[in-house]
Amino acid sequence: MDNNKLLIDIDNFMLDCSARNLSRKTMASYEQTLRLFTTFIREKYGITDSKSVKARHIREYIEQTRQRGKYTVVADAMTSRINHPTRRSDYGKQVSETTLANYLRNIKVFFNYLYGEKIIRRNPVANIENIKPARKKKPLLAEHELYMLMRSFDTSTFHGFRDWTITRLILDSGPRISEVLSIMPADVDLRNRAILLRYTKGGKERFIYFSDKMGRNLKSWMEFADRYTNSPYLFPSIHGRKMDPRNFEMSLRRAGQSVGIDVAPHQLRNNFAKYYLLNGGDFATLSRILGHSSPEVTQRAYLDFTNREIGQNYQKHSPLENLKI
Predict the structure, then answer these.
(1) pTM exceeding 0.90
(2) Residue 298's beta-bridge partner residues?
(3) Closest by alpha carbon to 221, among 264, 164, 172?
(4) Where do the DSSP E strands lie in the chain?
(5) Bridge partner residues of 195 (DSSP)
(6) Which of 94, 122, 227, 248 is most deeply buried (CB count within 10 A of its CB)?
């Protein structure tokens, strides 16, 4: 019988997460982080009880993770044999501060849960400050770059037409790729140019809106897809199943690389927000479209314009240029 009480606490925490209907991605992130942390403190300190974990153990784990390379430690030896991490191009490279911030956040959520459930009397994360990685600026793709990107998809094929339509939808409306791949045809209102997102990051349904041009693209895709699949999803895999976000990300990267552009799904969402603002949109409306908790969150996320982008926006709104004086 396993006497590792820490693992039992993790199992109970995961049950709680499941009961709160957290996404599979979030739960997988929690479990991987916690099992890696558990392995570290068991092997180094012989700790198998949550009550014995102290702040210094957590800080040491974060620092040790910062110093070691990517994928040099795994939570499950079986997955290592299946996924072959040593063959990855980034094996052994430095773990990013963003990843470390996620690890620490996951550990803090776990111990806050234990403290709230009165499983532990002292909370080891109470005085540990969050890691605040510097935000990476996502470049604004120029019109000619977007034109080349759109032309790189082979729209005569099922997957090419699908990925072209998804790319245009994210750029036009700003949803997350995970939200896009959960859309069902019944969620699309072509008449009012709106889509209901039922499965969102925050768990709250919201509407996004699309342009006339995008409406025509969606109508063409829906008519095309209806002839080849009876999947319940708007953008299914070739076999009719729900598409994995990673598959779209790889497809988008390949399309971008074919025309010399480095692009990812979240960059399209970022570009939607920036172009919306550059074209005169307001933060309050943008915040609701993006599904942020407040306009302030949106401002923090999308005020990283470059000097060139600020200059372009100025030229559009110059008082002298727009006044007949």
Answers:
(1) no
(2) none
(3) 164
(4) 188-189, 194-197, 206-209
(5) 188, 208
(6) 248
Which string of DSSP letters, residue by residue, matches 184-209? -GGGEETTTTEEEE-S-TTS--EEEE
pLDDT tens by residue, the chain, 325 residues = 456 899 999 999 999 999 998 888 889 999 999 999 999 999 999 999 999 999 999 999 999 998 875 444 544 444 444 444 444 444 457 888 889 999 999 999 999 999 999 999 999 999 999 988 766 667 789 899 999 999 999 999 999 999 999 999 999 999 999 999 999 999 999 999 999 999 888 788 999 999 999 999 999 999 999 999 999 999 999 999 999 999 999 999 999 999 999 999 999 998 998 888 888 888 888 888 888 888 887 877 766 666 676 676 677 766 656 656 5
- Written as six digits, the tokens of 248 are 């779209």
Enter the tokens of residue 93. Answer: 């490279």
CA 191 → CA 182, 198, 220, 235, distances in Å?
A: 21, 19, 14, 20
With CA atoms as reference, report the closest residue to 272 among 219, 215, 211: 211
Distance CA 232, CA 252 (A): 23
Structure tokens at 211: 């342009």
**Residue 291 dihedral angles phi and psi, to the nearest 5°:** 80, 25
Token pair for 21? 């209907």
Q: Which two tokens stand for residue 321?
A: 């240029």
Q: Both tokens of residue 79? A: 């997955």
Please give the single-letter amino acid code of residue 195. I
